[in-house]
Every structure is written in C-alpha cells, then in structure tokens.
Recover the amino acids of this structure.
C-alpha cells in the first residue's frame, strides 16, 4: 500500500516523459513492437497467477451459486434460486446494514486519528517522533486474530483488567460484549489495529509535500494549524481519498474480529453478524455451499460497485490518468 | 498451562472449535496475554488440548517396513499414547496420528477432503452427535463386515446405539459423558437443603436458596451451548429429534415434553432462581468456587477439569443421581464423548476397522485411555465396572467414590437419536438462544425460533419433516 501511494506521485511526474516517447518518430515503431513482444513474457506470469487465483475461483463461485445441494436428493441446478434467497434474507441484509454502520463510524475515526498523528509527526513538534511512529505502527503488525483475542481478554466481563479499570472509575458491570456494545467494541479493536497503518501512509504522503510550499506559507505568516489544514492536508487529499475507499472495502469485509469474538462470546455475535460471516456460516456451518457462493457473489458485486465508483470519482478529480 | 488442559475434558463443544484453532495460531505470540488468560479461564481448553506437545508430536513416525500405514485424525489428550501402544503391539499395521483441530475444525476438514475427493484420513475421532451427519453423506464405513459386533457386549448401551444405524455400525465408541448432579455439600448443608430427587423438589430448593441468599443460585445452565442443553433435554425425556437413517426427520422443540422442559426452566430463570453463566468462563468457575452457584449438572469428565479450575471449595463437591420427573427413577443424559470412525474412502478399511475396534474396545487400550493423561470416561464396561475404577477418588470430592454415581448414570440413559443436521443446529443455536441468559427472550420463544428455523432448513434439504 505504501508502494501505491508513493507510486501515485512518481507516476504523475513520469507521465509527460512516457507521452513524449509514444509520440516519437515512426522509425521507432519496429523497436517498440519488439519491446511489446518481450513485454508479453513479462506479463505472462502475472496473468497466469491472476487466472489461477482470481478468475478460476470467481468462475467456480459463480458456477457453485447456480446449484443447490440437498442432503436428501443430492446436487441439482437451481438457477437463480440461491440469489433470490440471499436477496430475500433479512439476516443477510441486517448484516450489510451492520457493516455499513460500522464503516460510517470506523472509517472516519481511523482516518481522522491517522491524519492528526501524521500531521504532528510530520511537523516534528513531538519529541521522540521516530519512536512513537513505530509504536503507533505496532498494532498493525499484530495479526487480527491475536488482536481480537487480546481485546476480548482485556475487556472480559468482570475479570478483564480494563473492565476492572473502567469499574474503578464508575463504569462497573459494563459488558462490552453485550448485543448493544459489541459493535462499538469491534470498532475499538479495528481502529486500534488500523490507525497506525493509515498514519504511516499519510505521513509518507505529507513528507512528499515540497518544503518550499510550507516555507512560503510560514513566511506569509500562516500558523501551524493553518499550514496543516489549509496547505498540507489538501495536498495529500489523493492519499486520503484512497485510504477512504480501502478502509471502506475492508469494513464491508469485516470477518476476523467478530468470528474470533464469537468463539468466546457466542451470544454476542450472531451467525449472520456480518455478510462475510453469513457467507462462511451458510457454506461451512450449514453446508449450503450454493447459497454461500451466491451471497459471496452479491457481496462481491456491492464491493465491486464501490471500487468502480471510487475509481470513477478519483478520475474525475484528476487523480488518475 | 497444566490447569486448563482438562477443563473441557471430553465434551463436545463445536462452537469452541474456533477457539481451538485460534489458540493453535496464537499461543506463541500470546503466551503471556490472551491465550494464557483464556486458558486460566478455561474458555478454550480445547485449544490448550490441541497444543499439547504430546499430541502434536506425530505418533507412528517409525513405521516398520511393509506395514499398512493408516492416517488418523484426532485431538483428545493421550490418544497418541494409545496409538503408540497399538503400533508397538501390531507389526502389520502402523497408525500415524495427526491433530487436525478439535471438533468442528476437524469435521469441516473432513467434509472438505471428501468434497475434494482426496486427503481424508483413514480413521478419525468423531463425537457421537455428528455421526449421523457423516452417515447421511456416506462418509463413514460400516464396520459390521469387519466384526465390530463382537465388541458390542462390552459397551454401555447408550454408546452402542449412538454408533448404530439400522443394522449398520458406523464407529467404535470410546468415551461417554453421563450427567450427574454435582453439588457443593457445604453450601447445601448451610441452607438446610437436601439433594433434590425430583425436578419439582429441585425447583423448591432453588426458591429456598434464593430466599435465604438472594445472591446465590442452586444451579446454572449455559443456554447458548447446544450440547449441555440437549443433554439436559435428553435427561428430561424431551430430546427434540428422531431420525433412523432415512428421509424422515422428526423435529419437536415445541412438543409436549419439550415445552414442559422449557417452561420449567423459564420459571427458574425468570424468577432469578437459576444462573446462566457461559460454560467454562472465569465467571462460571468463580461462581462455583465462591458460593454463588451451589451445583452443576456435570458430565462424568467434569470433576477432573473442575478440580484444576477451582480452589476454595475443593473437597466439598459430591455427586448424586440427576433429579427426575418422577421419583424413584434413574435417568441421565449424555454430554460429550467421542468415537473412532473409519472413513468410507479409506483404502485399508479392514486394518482401519481393526485399529478402531482395538482402540475403543480392548483392555490394552483402556489401560492408557482411562489413565491420568487421557482421563477418558469409559463406555467400555470391563473398566466401568471394575473395582479399581469405581473406588477412584479425587481431592475435589474428598473420599466420595463419585465414579459409581456416573457409572450408574452411564447405564441409565435413553439414547438420543441425533439428527443428520447437527452442523446447522450448532450454527444457529447461539444466535437463537442469545437472549435467554439476559432475559431479553424467553426460553419457550427460543425453542419456537429453533423449531421454525430447523423445519425450514430440513425441508429445504429434502427431508420429510414431522413434528
């Protein structure tokens, strides 16, 4: 991801050069053909992997979604019946609404915090900046499974150290895994996991803002906050927009944290808590592979629409060529 | 670590299998935080179990040349020792034990291997409740042609009937988990309560205890866990399923005796006379150890693990037969226990059956299985009836020969007819029962939800469903 964000900048500066090369004299054409022939060989491994690990599984999922396997009666073609069942499933859509609510809160909070800390570290006003940047990044290095385990222990009803701490300051008896608070708890875990990662990308983007611009602003008498809000952040808005969509797609695929929590707090996480859990539990839990595949396709379409929407939007803003 | 290894004992806890996998993944990173804490709590003993170095060390790695090599999947502690013993005493067959995750983790893997057409083991540890789900997909081999019926006379009836379907036998029983009323004798004496013989008396006792000490409960049940609840329903004569191998499936969560069971417990829950802490959570152990909960409905494998998870009340716990609906009868239910099944895809069914029969049905194997490391509760009668077994004591029960109570329970069970849709039952169960413990949903309402969901699912799966 860091590569991508750096890439956006470098692509932009490289673009004029590329364009110049393609509009060269006709004599270069033969050389270019040869280069493209070689190019195919360079592209081939990627295409093979793409086919094996993207197109084939996608095709298999589509194929599976058109069949229904019954314990009595075996497998038979069922057309779009699985899709009709998914679209009519209140459990599935309740899960979609839940992750949408999750995203509406988690994504802005994560990016807001990330931008705040990135700006502070970028300005160099914090002591031991390098050390704290590392500390902030550590949660991302912790696998999501471990993070979920860790938090479910820290917030364990009655016995978790943080639960006791909260009890000592007047929040005794709070169950962080009750049906009311479970989503907030998961948001807390995910924000904890991802803020450092987002911060690192934004920090890198901020560092790429030319010094002269900032110097000019400072000479003109702009305050710190003004430099950040009016100069630096607007200049890294492409990175922020990209993070927005990455986080959004990630939020819609929420799976690991609730599925781990459900092992310890089974009453808190229903089998269709998120759309991905619905997919998993119908395919693996109740052996309805066709239904699970159909749900996966529907979810994939929703996420695909959001991704395409983001591409179009960014293109209109002129961020992508 | 030791203290949490046996907490769950041999219970069937499919929904905790995620925890098992999680534990396996994270123990290295979390030795001091999450995993250890959960271990202490006993929430994921299956996890700890699967981490036992003894198990993960592959058994049978030194197979003799020319011996038929069999792959076995299993997770229970001490199985590797029995496998080693088998390999030592059999030169023509060699079993390699692999731990492919506990309960559902392993079942999912078997399903996947079957779907892929390769990679399945020859033999596997499978719990009773999930056998029909594998029988209906023809995943398991019938052991009758391999002489399994010769072992029938040595097994308790409830174990044998659960591995049988029609004239076929699809697994060799290993251990069982008969329920008994396991109580804190000091606490009952303090409140002047005698051990309840009937459920009516149990309800009266629960009310008495509540009146004397509003913070205490006579007993506790985790409604979000399908296994203990179904064992309790079985004991009450209200097991909600009937299936005998065909396309006809009976589901009756709203039948007469099931409704009576639900109403009985709803009354206790509603009046705050029954606790409902999550099974094997720190809260539950603490409730038992601090004088909050006076008893539990314990499976036979329960006391060993409990002893390692409590401190203050060790020596106070006694076993008594379960209360029944009418006095003078003995009736128990089964929670947990495993079998060894041979997969139909095995290329060596004869040798695999020979191993399964040896594992579950011989003195040589049970010497190890009933030993201190495996600690399996025998469905094998020569051990179950032996004086040395019946005279066993544990510090948690002081000098009481409590094994006798469980042994009697093991022989007084009406065998449950598990439905071939237990995967689905376990998947939706926690969601359907989530609100029972905190009072946001009544037990009869949860039963009704189960009934509607299961009937819908079973019909969609092609079953001829009767109520």
């Amino acid at each position: 991801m860091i590569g991508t964000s750096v890439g956006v900048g470098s692509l932009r500066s490289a673009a004029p050069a590329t364009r110049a090369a393609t509009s060269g004299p006709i004599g270069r054409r033969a050389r270019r053909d040869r280069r493209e022939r070689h190019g195919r060989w360079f592209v081939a491994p990627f295409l093979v992997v793409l086919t094996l690990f993207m197109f084939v599984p996608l095709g298999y999922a589509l194929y599976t979604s058109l069949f229904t396997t019954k314990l009595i009666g075996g497998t038979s073609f069922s057309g779009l019946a699985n899709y009709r069942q998914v679209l009519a499933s209140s459990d599935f859509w309740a899960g979609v609404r839940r992750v949408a609510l999750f995203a509406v809160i988690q994504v802005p909070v994560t990016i807001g915090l990330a931008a705040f800390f990135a700006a502070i570290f970028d300005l160099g006003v914090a002591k031991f900046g390098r050390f704290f940047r590392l500390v902030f990044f550590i949660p991302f290095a912790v696998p999501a499974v471990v993070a979920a385990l860790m938090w479910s222990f820290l917030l364990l009803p009655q016995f978790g150290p943080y639960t006791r701490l909260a009890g000592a300051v007047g929040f005794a008896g709070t169950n962080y895994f009750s049906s009311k608070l479970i989503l907030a708890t998961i948001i807390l875990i995910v924000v904890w996991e991802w803020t450092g990662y987002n911060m690192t990308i934004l920090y890198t983007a901020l560092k790429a803002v030319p010094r002269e611009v900032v110097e000019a602003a400072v000479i003109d008498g702009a305050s710190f906050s003004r430099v950040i809000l009016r100069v630096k952040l607007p200049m890294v808005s492409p990175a922020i927009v990209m993070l927005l969509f990455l986080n959004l797609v990630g939020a819609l695929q929420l799976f690991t944290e609730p599925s781990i929590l459900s092992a310890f707090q089974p009453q808190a996480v229903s089998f269709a808590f998120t759309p991905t859990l619905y997919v998993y539990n119908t395919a693996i839990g109740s052996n309805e592979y066709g239904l699970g595949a159909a749900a996966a396709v529907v979810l994939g379409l929703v996420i695909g629409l959001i991704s395409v929407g983001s591409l179009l939007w960014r293109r209109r803003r002129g961020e992508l060529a | 670590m030791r203290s949490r290894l046996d907490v769950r004992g041999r219970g069937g806890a499919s929904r905790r299998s995620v925890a098992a996998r999680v534990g396996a993944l994270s123990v290295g990173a979390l030795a001091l935080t999450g995993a250890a804490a959960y271990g202490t709590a006993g929430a994921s003993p299956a996890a700890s179990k699967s981490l036992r170095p003894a198990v993960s060390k592959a058994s049978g790695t030194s197979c003799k040349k020319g011996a038929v090599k069999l792959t076995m999947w299993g997770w229970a502690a001490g199985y590797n020792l029995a496998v080693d013993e088998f390999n030592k005493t059999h030169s023509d067959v060699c079993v390699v034990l692999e731990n492919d995750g506990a309960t559902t983790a392993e079942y999912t893997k078997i399903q996947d291997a079957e779907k892929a057409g390769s990679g399945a083991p020859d033999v596997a540890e499978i719990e009773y409740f999930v056998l029909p789900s594998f029988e209906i997909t023809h995943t398991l081999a019938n052991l009758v042609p391999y002489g399994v019926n010769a072992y029938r006379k040595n097994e308790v009836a409830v174990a044998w009937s659960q591995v049988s379907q029609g004239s076929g036998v699809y697994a060799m029983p290993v251990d069982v988990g008969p329920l008994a009323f396991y109580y804190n004798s000091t606490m009952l004496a303090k409140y002047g309560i005698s051990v309840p013989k009937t459920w009516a008396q149990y309800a009266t006792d629960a009310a008495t205890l509540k009146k004397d000490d509003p913070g205490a409960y006579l007993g506790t049940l985790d409604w979000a866990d399908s296994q203990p609840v179904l064992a309790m329903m079985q004991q009450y004569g209200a097991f909600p399923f009937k299936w005998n191998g065909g396309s006809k499936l009976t589901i009756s969560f709203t039948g007469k005796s099931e409704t009576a069971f639900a109403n009985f417990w709803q009354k206790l829950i509603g009046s705050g006379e029954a606790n409902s802490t999550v099974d094997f959570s720190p809260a539950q152990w603490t409730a038992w150890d601090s004088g909050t909960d006076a008893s539990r409905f314990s499976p036979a494998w329960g006391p060993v693990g409990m002893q390692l998870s409590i401190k203050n009340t060790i020596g106070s716990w006694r076993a008594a037969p379960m209360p029944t609906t009418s006095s003078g009868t003995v009736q128990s239910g089964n929670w947990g226990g495993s079998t060894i099944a041979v997969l139909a895809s095995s290329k060596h069914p004869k040798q695999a059956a020979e191993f399964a029969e040896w594992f579950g049905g011989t003195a040589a194997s049970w010497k190890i299985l009933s030993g201190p490391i495996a600690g399996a509760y025998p469905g094998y009668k020569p051990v179950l009836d032996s004086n040395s077994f019946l005279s066993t004591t544990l510090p948690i029960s002081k000098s009481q020969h409590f094994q006798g109570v469980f042994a009697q329970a093991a022989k007084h069970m009406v065998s449950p007819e598990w439905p071939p849709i237990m995967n689905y039952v376990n998947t939706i169960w926690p969601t359907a029962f989530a609100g029972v413990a905190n009072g946001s949903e009544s037990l009869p309402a949860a039963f009704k939800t189960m009934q509607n969901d299961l009937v819908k699912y079973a019909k969609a799966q092609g079953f001829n469903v009767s109520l």
About this structure: Confidence is low (pLDDT under 50) at residues 1-57 of chain B. Chain B has 22 helices and 15 strands. Residues 2-50 of chain B form one domain. Chain B touches chain A through 49 residues (CB under 8 Å).
